[in-house]
Design brief:
Elements lengths: L1 H11 L3 E5 L4 H16 L3 E7 L13 E5 L13 H11 L1 H13 L7 E7 L5 H7 L4 E5 L3 H8 L1 H6 L33 H14 L5 E4 L7 H10 L4 E3 L20 H6 L7 E5 L8 H14 L3 E4 L26 E4 L4 H6 L3 E6 L3 H10 L3 E3 L5 H12 L3 E3 L6 H12 L2 H21 L4 H14 L2
Parallel strand pairs: 1-2, 1-4, 2-3, 4-5, 5-6, 6-7, 8-9, 8-11, 9-10, 11-12, 12-13
Helix pairs in contact: 11-15, 15-16
This protein binds uridine-5'-diphosphate-xylopyranose.
Uridine-5'-diphosphate-xylopyranose (UDX) binds next to helix 2, helix 12, helix 13 and helix 14.
Amino acid sequence: MEDQKMFHLQQRKGRRVILFPLPLQGHINPMLQLASILYNKGFSISIIHTNFNSLNSSNYPRFSFHSIPDGLSKNEASFADMVALVSLLNVKCVAPFKDCLRKMLSNSVEGENVACLITDAGWYFTQSVAENLKIPRLVLRTNSVSYFLAYAAFPLLREKGYIPAQDCEPEAPVPELPPLRVKDIPVFKTDIPETLHQVILELTNQTKVYSGCIWNSFPDLEQVSFATLHKEFPIPMFPIGPFHKYFPASSSSLLSQDHSSISWLNKQPPKSVIYVSFGSIAAINESELLEIAWGLANSKVPFLWVVRPGLVRGAEWTETLPKGFLERLDGRGHIVKWAPQQEVLAHPAIGGFWTHNGWNSTLESICEGVPMICQPCFGDQMVNARYVSHVWKIGLHLERKLERGEIEKTIKRVMVEAEGQEMRERIMYLKEKVDLCLKQGGSSYQSLDNLINYILSF
Ligand code: UDX
């Protein structure tokens, strides 16, 4: 057995994988985690990244980093219209990426033994570059499989009149996509809906020609969706998630993480704190900030709240909160700009997570057995929230307008009432499934082995 392991490590030595993350926090984290997983399995790692949301290479001294100019102006580098941002990146990065990859492949040290390219699915222009340079391209999908299937069904949903949203009853089920209702269909606010439609078509068609697809998920979590995926997209699939459980908390954060979160949590009783964070892109308005603040205060439940600069439209940070808001709570609340989220969720004082249901946040919460309050804002978050509240039943969906009384009630339901305890039990059961899938003989463990052998076969 040991001999066989040595043989494999020897075989991988010198084989290099080139990775290209989409420059958004929720996409950078899983790509860098995947890089670390492959590095630990003996591969050499090169990362190509844009100047926009540039990576801090000093956190990964063993990887080689290559920065490319993305040519985005200050106005263009904005999260206001994500469809516009991603499609622009896919135009502006073509030449610099091609140039960088070509140079890397012809470099005697780095170019030798390159096994494959792994890009985020959002980099759809890279398929033709890879074909052109005759290098296999694997794709990392950073979302759930259930969301991908909803996304792939967009043309059908458009044909049936669900998109663009019309007068359909929001609570009505979408029979083509159970368990989604009309209001769970992923929405993207954009000024260029036709581009969005084209991109979705392109991405879905491409999924049939990738050399393979890597998922930050595992079949026991999304059984029905994985079965459909295998049927509709018969390419090599590698569900090896959840990535972040392969090693201790990683450090691909673009913002600096405030560790006072942990010292504050250390002073709180077990399972008493609600952690509130809406990820790296979602935005709210001033009046919503106030409703959240009063809902948290009135619930009497201790809270750790991430108010990211940029979270509140038109504000710098928390200046619109009433003067002395935190002081009046007598230490019951702590606000930070950015937290070490994985460490926070693993802290014994955490009892609940009020989240926007980005896929990373959702998975991180499941992995620590923390029930959720779901407040999806756009895209995949709508689908994730539906699965959390309706399929796995490990959270409550805050569906109505953000209002302090409703917020207070929902926090109490999750944090102190029997209903919350039941959700905690169900999520602990899912957490056990996570632990099992990563162990020898588990599905992710096996898929990772398959992925390694597949990369070595190129
Ligand atoms: C985006 C999309 O919005 C999301 O829907 C999609 O699934 C991935 O890309 P984002 O909104 O940032 O991501 O959410 P999420 O997927 O949850 O990723 C956020 C990441 O930032 C997580 O890994 C989380 O641990 C980290 N984080 C968040 C911190 O490190 N500190 C914080 O304070 C908040």
